[in-house]
């Protein structure tokens, strides 16, 4: 797992997603995030770590872009990245994607479960999920 910290963006998958988003026009970013989240949420087989990392980062960006959002974006890795305010249905999709990342047949969940920081990582995801679920009514 290419990870350098506990943060939601501190991994290769998130960095790749951020690079892709920065390179595309702003009006295409929500569609790209929807695609990442949909792919993770719909995966019925084993969810590989890179897809899980991207789904977590996409969920964090959706939470940060909401008008009432308090989740941090990622200024350290993509200080100029802006994401338009997402519709509520993207918060719902982000919750489903996070649930999939946390499922037993998710490589990312397995890797964090085996690491010393697994409980802290789970706490980060629980806060993010609660933030998104609060706006997903």
TrEMBL record:
Database matches in InterPro entries: DUF4259
Source species, domain of life: Bacteria
Protein name: DUF4259 domain-containing protein
Native source organism of the sequence: Streptomyces chrestomyceticus JCM 4735
């Amino acid at each position: 797992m290419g990870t350098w910290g506990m943060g939601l963006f501190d991994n290769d998958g998130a960095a790749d997603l951020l690079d892709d988003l920065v390179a595309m026009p702003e009006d295409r970013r929500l569609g790209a995030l929807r695609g990442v989240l949909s792919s993770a949420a719909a995966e019925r087989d084993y969810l590989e770590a890179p897809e899980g990392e991207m789904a977590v980062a996409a969920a964090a960006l959706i939470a940060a872009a909401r008008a009432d959002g308090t989740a941090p974006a990622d200024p350290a890795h993509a200080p100029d990245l802006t994401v338009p305010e997402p519709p509520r249905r993207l918060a719902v999709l982000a919750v489903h994607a996070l649930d999939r990342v946390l499922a037993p047949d998710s490589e990312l969940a397995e890797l964090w479960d085996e690491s010393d920081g697994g409980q802290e990582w789970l706490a980060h995801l629980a806060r993010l999920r609660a933030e998104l679920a609060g706006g997903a009514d």
